[in-house]
Amino acid sequence: MNINWFPGHMKKTRELLKEQLKLVDVVFELLDARIPFSSKNPEIDQMIGSKPRVVVLNKADLADEGATTKWIHYYKSKNITAIPVNTISGKGLRNVIQQAEEATKEKREALLKKGRRNRAIRIMMVGIPNVGKSSMINQLAGKKSAQTGDRPGVTKGKQWIRLKGNMELLDTPGILWPKFEDQDVAMKLAYTGAIKDEIMDIETLALKLIEVLIPLHMDKLMERYSLKEVPETPLETMNEIARVRGCLIKGGEIDFSRVANIILDEFRGGKIGRITLEYPEEVNITN
Protein backbone atom coordinates (compact mmCIF):
# COMPACT_ATOMS: atom_id res chain seq x y z
CA MET A 1 0.00 0.00 0.00
CA ASN A 2 1.45 3.36 -1.05
CA ILE A 3 -0.26 6.10 0.95
CA ASN A 4 -0.15 9.78 0.04
CA TRP A 5 -2.85 12.26 1.04
CA PHE A 6 -2.47 16.04 1.02
CA PRO A 7 -5.74 17.88 0.37
CA GLY A 8 -5.54 21.43 -0.96
CA HIS A 9 -6.75 23.03 2.27
CA MET A 10 -3.72 21.56 4.07
CA LYS A 11 -1.33 23.55 1.87
CA LYS A 12 -3.28 26.71 2.72
CA THR A 13 -3.18 25.81 6.41
CA ARG A 14 0.60 25.47 6.33
CA GLU A 15 0.84 28.97 4.89
CA LEU A 16 -1.65 30.23 7.49
CA LEU A 17 0.42 28.80 10.33
CA LYS A 18 3.51 30.66 9.19
CA GLU A 19 1.58 33.91 8.93
CA GLN A 20 -0.22 33.69 12.28
CA LEU A 21 2.52 32.34 14.55
CA LYS A 22 3.70 35.87 15.35
CA LEU A 23 0.29 36.59 16.89
CA VAL A 24 0.41 33.81 19.50
CA ASP A 25 2.30 33.31 22.75
CA VAL A 26 2.39 29.54 22.98
CA VAL A 27 1.72 26.54 20.74
CA PHE A 28 -0.16 23.39 21.74
CA GLU A 29 1.13 20.54 19.59
CA LEU A 30 -1.33 17.66 19.71
CA LEU A 31 0.01 14.16 19.11
CA ASP A 32 -1.69 10.77 19.23
CA ALA A 33 -0.31 9.05 22.35
CA ARG A 34 -0.41 5.71 20.51
CA ILE A 35 1.89 7.01 17.76
CA PRO A 36 3.68 10.14 19.06
CA PHE A 37 6.41 9.95 16.41
CA SER A 38 4.23 9.10 13.44
CA SER A 39 1.56 11.66 14.35
CA LYS A 40 4.13 14.46 14.55
CA ASN A 41 4.22 16.68 11.49
CA PRO A 42 7.97 16.97 10.73
CA GLU A 43 7.46 20.51 9.41
CA ILE A 44 6.07 21.80 12.71
CA ASP A 45 9.41 22.18 14.52
CA GLN A 46 10.78 24.43 11.81
CA MET A 47 7.56 26.45 11.69
CA ILE A 48 7.37 26.93 15.47
CA GLY A 49 11.06 27.66 15.97
CA SER A 50 11.73 28.99 19.49
CA LYS A 51 8.07 29.73 20.24
CA PRO A 52 7.04 28.22 23.64
CA ARG A 53 5.37 24.86 23.13
CA VAL A 54 3.39 22.27 25.07
CA VAL A 55 3.15 18.76 23.62
CA VAL A 56 -0.27 17.26 24.28
CA LEU A 57 -0.37 13.46 24.13
CA ASN A 58 -4.04 12.96 23.38
CA LYS A 59 -5.93 9.66 23.50
CA ALA A 60 -3.69 8.62 26.38
CA ASP A 61 -6.58 6.48 27.63
CA LEU A 62 -6.10 4.30 24.53
CA ALA A 63 -2.32 4.04 24.83
CA ASP A 64 -0.14 1.83 27.00
CA GLU A 65 0.63 3.76 30.19
CA GLY A 66 4.24 2.60 30.38
CA ALA A 67 4.87 3.70 26.81
CA THR A 68 3.33 7.12 27.46
CA THR A 69 5.62 7.59 30.45
CA LYS A 70 8.61 6.88 28.21
CA TRP A 71 7.45 9.52 25.74
CA ILE A 72 7.02 12.06 28.52
CA HIS A 73 10.60 11.40 29.66
CA TYR A 74 11.84 11.65 26.07
CA TYR A 75 10.33 15.09 25.61
CA LYS A 76 11.60 16.19 29.01
CA SER A 77 15.12 15.34 27.81
CA LYS A 78 14.47 17.83 24.97
CA ASN A 79 13.28 20.50 27.46
CA ILE A 80 9.72 20.16 26.19
CA THR A 81 6.79 19.43 28.49
CA ALA A 82 4.54 16.60 27.28
CA ILE A 83 1.21 16.08 29.02
CA PRO A 84 -1.07 13.02 28.57
CA VAL A 85 -4.72 13.92 28.15
CA ASN A 86 -8.10 12.56 27.18
CA THR A 87 -9.91 15.34 25.33
CA ILE A 88 -13.22 13.49 25.49
CA SER A 89 -13.34 13.41 29.30
CA GLY A 90 -11.13 16.45 29.81
CA LYS A 91 -8.64 14.57 31.97
CA GLY A 92 -5.22 16.25 31.95
CA LEU A 93 -6.35 19.53 30.39
CA ARG A 94 -5.93 21.49 33.62
CA ASN A 95 -2.24 20.57 33.52
CA VAL A 96 -2.01 21.81 29.92
CA ILE A 97 -3.44 25.20 30.89
CA GLN A 98 -1.10 25.48 33.88
CA GLN A 99 1.85 24.76 31.63
CA ALA A 100 0.70 27.40 29.14
CA GLU A 101 0.54 29.96 31.94
CA GLU A 102 4.01 28.99 33.10
CA ALA A 103 5.47 29.11 29.57
CA THR A 104 4.17 32.65 29.01
CA LYS A 105 4.77 34.04 32.50
CA GLU A 106 7.92 36.02 31.68
CA LYS A 107 6.40 37.60 28.59
CA ARG A 108 3.24 38.62 30.42
CA GLU A 109 5.21 40.09 33.33
CA ALA A 110 7.39 42.05 30.90
CA LEU A 111 4.31 43.53 29.24
CA LEU A 112 2.86 44.55 32.61
CA LYS A 113 6.09 46.35 33.54
CA LYS A 114 5.76 48.34 30.31
CA GLY A 115 2.29 49.41 31.36
CA ARG A 116 0.46 47.05 29.01
CA ARG A 117 -2.79 45.60 30.27
CA ASN A 118 -2.95 41.94 31.16
CA ARG A 119 -4.23 40.69 27.79
CA ALA A 120 -5.36 37.15 27.08
CA ILE A 121 -2.76 34.43 26.52
CA ARG A 122 -2.91 33.65 22.83
CA ILE A 123 -2.62 30.00 21.90
CA MET A 124 -2.25 28.19 18.61
CA MET A 125 -3.25 24.54 18.48
CA VAL A 126 -1.68 22.39 15.76
CA GLY A 127 -1.87 18.72 14.89
CA ILE A 128 -2.69 16.19 12.23
CA PRO A 129 -6.31 15.36 11.30
CA ASN A 130 -8.45 13.42 13.78
CA VAL A 131 -6.03 13.89 16.67
CA GLY A 132 -8.69 15.51 18.86
CA LYS A 133 -8.21 19.26 18.46
CA SER A 134 -11.91 20.09 18.21
CA SER A 135 -12.76 18.03 21.30
CA MET A 136 -9.99 19.75 23.24
CA ILE A 137 -11.18 23.19 22.17
CA ASN A 138 -14.73 22.41 23.29
CA GLN A 139 -13.47 21.23 26.68
CA LEU A 140 -11.32 24.33 27.19
CA ALA A 141 -14.04 26.71 26.00
CA GLY A 142 -16.73 25.06 28.09
CA LYS A 143 -19.10 24.99 25.16
CA LYS A 144 -19.37 23.57 21.68
CA SER A 145 -17.18 26.06 19.86
CA ALA A 146 -15.56 23.78 17.31
CA GLN A 147 -17.11 21.19 15.05
CA THR A 148 -16.07 17.66 16.00
CA GLY A 149 -16.12 14.38 14.16
CA ASP A 150 -14.62 10.90 14.16
CA ARG A 151 -13.12 11.40 10.73
CA PRO A 152 -10.18 13.54 9.61
CA GLY A 153 -10.68 16.87 7.90
CA VAL A 154 -13.64 18.26 9.89
CA THR A 155 -12.07 21.64 10.73
CA LYS A 156 -11.55 23.65 7.53
CA GLY A 157 -10.93 27.30 8.46
CA LYS A 158 -9.31 29.73 10.89
CA GLN A 159 -11.20 30.85 13.99
CA TRP A 160 -10.31 32.65 17.26
CA ILE A 161 -12.01 31.10 20.27
CA ARG A 162 -12.33 32.51 23.79
CA LEU A 163 -11.34 29.92 26.39
CA LYS A 164 -12.06 29.66 30.10
CA GLY A 165 -9.97 32.16 32.02
CA ASN A 166 -7.90 34.77 30.27
CA MET A 167 -7.04 32.83 27.12
CA GLU A 168 -7.76 32.96 23.41
CA LEU A 169 -7.05 30.18 20.95
CA LEU A 170 -6.42 30.30 17.22
CA ASP A 171 -7.79 27.06 15.82
CA THR A 172 -6.41 25.63 12.58
CA PRO A 173 -7.34 22.59 10.49
CA GLY A 174 -5.27 19.44 10.90
CA ILE A 175 -2.40 19.14 8.46
CA LEU A 176 -0.43 16.19 7.22
CA TRP A 177 2.64 16.65 5.04
CA PRO A 178 2.92 16.57 1.23
CA LYS A 179 4.70 13.22 0.94
CA PHE A 180 5.03 10.23 3.24
CA GLU A 181 8.64 9.21 2.75
CA ASP A 182 8.25 6.51 5.38
CA GLN A 183 5.36 4.20 4.55
CA ASP A 184 5.54 2.68 8.05
CA VAL A 185 4.58 6.11 9.38
CA ALA A 186 1.78 6.34 6.83
CA MET A 187 0.42 2.94 7.84
CA LYS A 188 0.32 3.89 11.53
CA LEU A 189 -1.57 7.06 10.64
CA ALA A 190 -4.01 4.94 8.67
CA TYR A 191 -4.44 2.42 11.50
CA THR A 192 -5.41 5.19 13.92
CA GLY A 193 -7.76 6.96 11.50
CA ALA A 194 -5.71 10.07 10.63
CA ILE A 195 -6.12 9.26 6.93
CA LYS A 196 -9.56 8.93 5.42
CA ASP A 197 -10.71 5.34 5.15
CA GLU A 198 -12.39 6.22 1.86
CA ILE A 199 -9.02 6.36 0.09
CA MET A 200 -7.72 3.16 1.70
CA ASP A 201 -7.89 -0.54 0.92
CA ILE A 202 -9.59 -1.30 4.23
CA GLU A 203 -9.24 -5.07 3.98
CA THR A 204 -5.48 -4.90 3.44
CA LEU A 205 -5.15 -2.23 6.14
CA ALA A 206 -6.87 -4.41 8.74
CA LEU A 207 -4.72 -7.39 7.76
CA LYS A 208 -1.57 -5.31 8.11
CA LEU A 209 -2.74 -4.13 11.53
CA ILE A 210 -3.21 -7.73 12.66
CA GLU A 211 0.30 -8.48 11.40
CA VAL A 212 1.62 -5.65 13.60
CA LEU A 213 -0.38 -6.68 16.67
CA ILE A 214 0.36 -10.42 16.64
CA PRO A 215 3.99 -10.30 17.93
CA LEU A 216 3.20 -8.06 20.90
CA HIS A 217 -0.52 -8.31 21.56
CA MET A 218 -1.71 -11.75 20.45
CA ASP A 219 -3.10 -12.29 23.94
CA LYS A 220 -5.32 -9.22 23.58
CA LEU A 221 -6.55 -10.35 20.17
CA MET A 222 -7.38 -13.80 21.50
CA GLU A 223 -9.22 -12.40 24.52
CA ARG A 224 -11.17 -9.79 22.57
CA TYR A 225 -12.26 -12.18 19.83
CA SER A 226 -12.55 -15.38 21.90
CA LEU A 227 -10.01 -17.25 19.80
CA LYS A 228 -9.43 -20.75 21.15
CA GLU A 229 -6.10 -21.39 19.44
CA VAL A 230 -3.31 -19.18 18.10
CA PRO A 231 -3.80 -18.99 14.30
CA GLU A 232 -0.74 -19.66 12.16
CA THR A 233 -0.86 -16.51 10.04
CA PRO A 234 -2.33 -12.98 10.11
CA LEU A 235 -4.80 -13.98 7.39
CA GLU A 236 -5.97 -16.99 9.37
CA THR A 237 -6.31 -14.74 12.43
CA MET A 238 -8.53 -12.42 10.41
CA ASN A 239 -10.53 -15.40 9.15
CA GLU A 240 -11.08 -16.68 12.69
CA ILE A 241 -12.20 -13.26 13.89
CA ALA A 242 -14.65 -13.17 10.97
CA ARG A 243 -16.09 -16.56 11.92
CA VAL A 244 -16.43 -15.63 15.59
CA ARG A 245 -18.19 -12.38 14.71
CA GLY A 246 -20.37 -13.96 12.04
CA CYS A 247 -18.85 -11.97 9.19
CA LEU A 248 -19.86 -14.50 6.55
CA ILE A 249 -21.63 -14.28 3.23
CA LYS A 250 -23.52 -16.82 1.17
CA GLY A 251 -21.72 -20.14 1.04
CA GLY A 252 -19.86 -19.52 4.28
CA GLU A 253 -17.22 -17.29 2.67
CA ILE A 254 -15.56 -14.54 4.68
CA ASP A 255 -17.00 -11.03 4.42
CA PHE A 256 -13.61 -9.33 4.51
CA SER A 257 -14.97 -5.80 4.24
CA ARG A 258 -17.18 -6.24 7.29
CA VAL A 259 -14.56 -7.91 9.49
CA ALA A 260 -11.94 -5.35 8.44
CA ASN A 261 -14.15 -2.51 9.60
CA ILE A 262 -14.84 -4.27 12.91
CA ILE A 263 -11.11 -4.77 13.59
CA LEU A 264 -10.19 -1.18 12.74
CA ASP A 265 -13.10 0.33 14.68
CA GLU A 266 -12.36 -1.75 17.77
CA PHE A 267 -8.64 -0.98 17.66
CA ARG A 268 -9.31 2.74 17.30
CA GLY A 269 -11.84 2.64 20.11
CA GLY A 270 -9.47 0.86 22.50
CA LYS A 271 -11.69 -2.21 22.70
CA ILE A 272 -8.82 -4.56 21.86
CA GLY A 273 -6.81 -3.00 24.68
CA ARG A 274 -4.52 -0.10 25.49
CA ILE A 275 -1.95 -0.33 22.73
CA THR A 276 0.98 1.89 21.72
CA LEU A 277 2.49 1.18 18.31
CA GLU A 278 5.87 2.88 18.80
CA TYR A 279 8.36 3.74 21.54
CA PRO A 280 11.07 6.43 21.68
CA GLU A 281 13.88 3.88 21.51
CA GLU A 282 12.40 2.17 18.45
CA VAL A 283 11.91 5.09 16.09
CA ASN A 284 14.34 7.31 14.22
CA ILE A 285 13.75 10.60 15.97
CA THR A 286 15.85 13.43 14.62
CA ASN A 287 14.19 16.37 16.39
From TrEMBL:
Its main location: cytoplasm. The keyword Mitochondrion does not apply. GO terms for cellular component: cytoplasm. Keywords: Cytoplasm, GTP-binding, Hydrolase, Nucleotide-binding, RNA-binding. Pfam families: MMR_HSR1. InterPro entries: G_CP_dom (IPR030378), GTP-bd (IPR006073), GTP-bd_ortho_bundle_sf (IPR023179), GTP-bd_ribosome_bgen (IPR019991), GTPase_MTG1 (IPR016478), P-loop_NTPase (IPR027417). SUPFAM superfamilies: P-loop containing nucleoside triphosphate hydrolases (SSF52540). The keyword Hydrolase applies. GTP binds at residues 58-61, 130-135, 174. GO terms for molecular function: GTP binding; GTPase activity; RNA binding. It is found in: Cytoplasm. GO terms for biological process: translation. Residues 13-178 form the CP-type G domain. PANTHER family: MITOCHONDRIAL RIBOSOME-ASSOCIATED GTPASE 1. Required for a late step of 50S ribosomal subunit assembly. Has GTPase activity. Belongs to the TRAFAC class YlqF/YawG GTPase family. MTG1 subfamily. This is Ribosome biogenesis GTPase A.
